[in-house]
Design a protein that fits this description.
The chain has about 170 residues and is mainly beta. The chain is about 15% helix and about 45% strand.
Length: about 170
């Protein structure tokens, strides 16, 4: 397996990365000879269409500690753990209405309606929704979850007013 670990800005090729869950369900990556494991989160690298490739394992500070180039490189148990984790990572709620948008200190609080019901989430003030080619907007909250806001013309007037400052 050719998984890459980044140390001090340099890339180190690893022979092995194993993934497992602690009893408290925290995801751990055992990198190389480290059998204790490092708590990690998972982030897909672009393109999202390559669902089984280029998966970043990041520490609590968001630093990449390893890059899994392809799921097929992992042992069976690690692959199963990572596939389950990726189900949560690819979760993206579709926002159909903005009920309220407030700024509070360094955060923006979003109260929205989604295809799965009402949700409340927060983003940093500097994190702006990215306009997609289909006219929708993609935003990532402070927990790393994604929300796709439908195109402006599909929103009610109040929602459009909230979103107007983010549009070009």
């Amino acid at each position: 397996m050719e998984t890459i670990m980044k140390e001090s800005g340099a890339e180190t090729h690893l022979d092995r990365v194993r993934l497992r869950r602690r009893e408290d369900q925290v995801l751990l990556a055992e990198v190389g000879a480290d059998k204790l494991g490092v708590p990690v989160t998972v982030a897909r690298c672009l393109p999202w269409l390559a669902a089984d490739q280029f998966i970043s394992l990041r520490d609590k500070d968001g630093n990449e500690i390893a890059l899994v180039r392809d799921l097929s490189e992992l042992d069976t148990d690690s692959r199963a753990v990572l596939e389950k984790e990726l189900e949560f990572v690819k979760f993206c709620l579709r926002v159909t209405k903005l009920d309220q948008l407030k700024q509070d200190f360094e955060l923006r609080r979003w109260e929205v309606q989604t295809h799965a019901g009402p949700r409340v989430f927060q983003t940093l003030l500097d994190d702006w929704p990215e306009k997609m080619s289909d006219g929708s907007f993609l935003i990532r909250d402070i927990c790393g979850d994604f929300y796709q806001i439908v195109p402006m013309h599909e929103l009610d007037t109040k929602s459009q007013e909230y979103l107007w400052s983010f549009s070009d």
